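Final report, Chapter 2: Outcomes

The project's central promise was a pipeline that accepts a single protein chain and returns its three-dimensional structure in a standardized token representation, suitable for archiving and comparison. That pipeline is now operational. To close this chapter, we reproduce one record exactly as it appears in the project archive, with the input sequence first and the structure output second.
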Amino acid sequence: MSTLLTEKPGVMSADEREKLLKQIESINKEFQDFVYIISHDLKAPLRAINALSDWIATDYADKFDDDGKEQLRMLTTRVNRMQNLLDGVLQYSRIGRITEDPALIDLNQLLQEIIKLLGTPANIHITVEGQLPIITSEPTRIQQVFQHLLSNAVRFMDKPEGFIKVACAEENGFWKFSVADNGPGIPEQHFEKIFRLFQTLQAKDQFESTGVGLTLAKKIVELYGGKIWLTSAVGQGSTFFFTLPKTDSQKKTD
């Protein structure tokens, strides 16, 4: 006697898929709530510690020796780092959950605004090679990608004269962007590590970095269907590449 099977072995039924999706949605919501609550609850005491340390530094300035002043400076630095870490975690958790209306973005104008915002030192020169495209996307997200890549290149520059170049080319239906610098370079064995959350290659007391920026950039780029990677030579510099798919309208006008 044969039995008719309505579902293939190992294949989920529609009800099972719906149940699984609801479970995933519930877990995601719990995670988002957890991140928000923890970040909010931690920020309040951090602000209090920061205010207290500022008060001590002002009212007791004449009572500290050089070592005491250095310890107080380190306290303030680490409190600020913790606040930046919490902000980074919140930004990371919001990607893909909170969206903007897509808009036309003139990347030539956006890059100039970012460069002004960075307040780049006089010995570091940022240039844009050729004309960048006008794309349709979420403005804040695209700004975050370029801002994190450029700020990293500026922050870790180790040459008396720093040069950072932004460029773009069309490749197989994608915009391929590059941010190249003549900084310290990155050993190949760390190419994947630097895109992981909270991972930095330098001592945190030497360079103020949360290890969140490249992780955010990677998540944003991949959310849009692109990818991000780098090439680098130690002592000579690095080039970060990322791609964004061209929209149908952009493909038709080429």
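Archive annotation: The CA atoms of residues 53 and 187 lie 38 Å apart.
This record, like all others produced under the grant, will remain available to the consortium after the project formally closes.
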